[in-house]
Amino acid sequence: GPVPGFNAVIASSVPLGGLSSSASLEVATYTFLQQLCADDGDAVQKALTCQKSEHTFAGVPCGIMDQFISVMGREGHALLIDCRSLEVTPLPLADPGMAILITNSNVCHELTGSEYPERRRQCEEAAKVLGKDTLRDVSFEDLEAMKERLSDTCYKRARHVITEIARTTYAAEALQRGDYKEFGRLMVKSHNSLRDDYEVSCPELDELVAIAIEVPGVYGSRMTGGGFGGCTVTLLETSAAERAKQHIQSRYRGSPTFYLTKAS
Question: Residue limits of the GHMP kinase N-terminal domain (predicted)?
Answer without folding.
Answer: 4-74
